[in-house]
Amino acid sequence: MEYKWTVLSNTTLGGLLASIDGSILLIALPVVFRGLGVNPFAASNFPILLWLLLGYGVVTATLLVTVGRLSDMLGRARMYNFGFAIFSTGSILLFVEPWSGATGAWALVVFRLVQAVGASFLFANSLALLTDAFPPGERGKAIGVNQIAFIGGSLLGLVVGGTLAGVPDLHFGPFVLPTWRLIFLVSVPVGVAGTIWAYRSLRETSTRAANQKVDYLGNLSFALGLTLLLVGITYGLLPYGGSNMGWGSPWVIGAILGGVATLVAFVFIESRVPDPMFRLSFFRIRAFAAGATATLLGSLARGGMMLLLVIWFQGIWLPLHGYSFASTPFWAGIMMMPLIAGFLVAGPLSGYLSDRRGARTLATTGMLLGAAAFIGLAFEPVDFAYWQVGALLFLNGCGMGMFAAPNASSVMSAVPAENRGAASGMLTTLQNAGQQLSLAIFFTVVIVGLSHGLGSGALSVLNGAGTPAPDANILGQLISANPTGALFGAFLGSNPMSQLLQVAPSYPGWVPLSPATQTNLLAPHFFAATVAPGFGSALSEAFLFAAGLTLVAATVSALRGGQYFHTATGTASRSPSPTGPSAPAPNPSPGSAPEAKAR
């Protein structure tokens, strides 16, 4: 096999595995908690839930720039191979961990973080290795396939997690393979085989950044600042005092302010050290600045969308249509497939076309399609007709696919060859950090909107079900007081009404329910109907916010200007343009090669 195809095959496999594992738990968490015997509704276990959901993304976002910068100095293939080995080790530890209960759950958190460290090496080096291996006229096609693995893998993880969640425990004579272990087993054999393949086949072809020193102060300030910011935002989702969320917690406020202050100091540090890890000079390259900014905005819009869709399908729509809460993870994964299909259709085609037509039109059109899909979703009723939402998800997937490959190719081709690892790390950091911030932003929007819309709506549904007035008031107050717990209950495959009916009888004035009323309240559709009105209005606000972010990203993408190509030797090259050649662009930083506008 020609070497460039070896690079494409292995980096695509690595990116696919790392992305699948980043999202596979989003749907499969109910099975994991049941298998470990952990009650996710206990206040002491809620941090476990958040870290299993968000810890993987926090670690990868924090390490990507540092890893990319080190790869420029030590060798991209070497660091990529090392990352594949770490990722596979983490996968094995997740599969074999021997504990149960809270100890086992925290062990999964730790091993997921090990896996995430390996994933950061894979993400940071994939684009750089591809840019080194493929000539400018073929990079869009190659990066298109890689971006399918990166973004498509995060979507595919939802389907894989939902599908495996519906598989019963496997029995091999006296041995039993629980379903939750099967979820982690998926990446073990492929990860081990990919690691061996990478060590045997990948070699160094890049120009290393010579005579440069490690930016210790920059690495430390960036890692500390981003970690504080993302951890503070993560804990902002926890209830605090009498509030549904923790944004008033002194710890959360201090972590966010400390993170922001440290990142501001990081910018000043990077503008003064001789060999910075974060090349701020890249933002003077128009194609890089516009592409990186559009990536951040697109991730802010897209990251929270997946959580909203999962909650919408698992907690509301499927129960409204009679599906049991235990079966909703599987069906929610199936319902996400149009999103993946759209991405698979548009991603490779747009990468191929960008090699011939440039990135600006394709990437901008992709963002506009995504914005249109978000607007359409905002006006869908909570109890929708699936073909309509399926069509909008397909449109959104097409938009994401049209943007991802041309944009990444444009950004990576715009930087000097010896700095591609740093550029890849910067781009992927913005993408991962945007997704993490997006989860917190969108979840906050939904919870705030839901808490305002639950009161009267819940009481009306309870009264309509024949619930005695005192009991309806108690249950309505409990639902309104803890919308976070209610939504996560449905999200985790448990009927929230069963939890509430265990607590409510302890309140003064409670009247014992008749068997018929209790059966009615415990029906799968009942809780969904109770929260649907408030959830619908909050969902519309969140999707409109996502549409606004995507429109801004489209505007930024349209301003990217021409595309620059740097060859492996550091000299600029020019490719034919339908509109004719343009004048050379200014040199972005001292010592880098000159650029020429290609399109």
- Describe the sheet with the most strands: 2 strands, antiparallel
Mean pLDDT value: 80
DSSP summary, beta strand count = 6
Low-confidence stretches: 567-599
Beta-strand fraction estimate: under 5%
* Shape, principal axes of CA atoms: globular
User: How many distinct helices?
Assistant: 21
CATH superfamily of the largest domain: MFS general substrate transporter like domains
Helix content: over 70%
**Tally of distinct domains:** 2
CATH architecture of the largest domain: Up-down Bundle
Task: Please give the order of strands in the largest beta sheet.
Answer: 1-2
Write the CATH fold name of the largest domain.
Growth Hormone, Chain: A
Through-space gap between termini: 31 Å
CATH class of the largest domain: Mainly Alpha
Q: Specify the structural class.
A: mainly alpha
Output the radius of gyration: 25 Å
Short description:
The protein is mostly helical and 599 residues long.
Describe this structure in words.
This protein has two domains: 3-214 and 275-451 and 535-585, MFS general substrate transporter like domains (Growth Hormone, Chain: A), CATH 1.20.1250.20; 215-274. The model is unreliable at 567-599 (pLDDT under 50). 73% of the residues lie in helices and 2% in strands. The chain has helices at residues 3-36, 46-74, 76-96, 101-133, 136-165, 179-185, 187-201, 216-235, 250-270, 286-320, 328-335, 337-357, 360-378, 386-413, 420-453, 455-464, 469-481, 483-491, 496-503, 515-521, 524-558, and strands at residues 170-172, 175-177, 565-566, 572-573, 584-585, 595-596. The protein has 599 residues and is mainly alpha-helical. A hairpin with a 5-residue loop joins β3 and β4. The chain contains 21 helices and six strands.
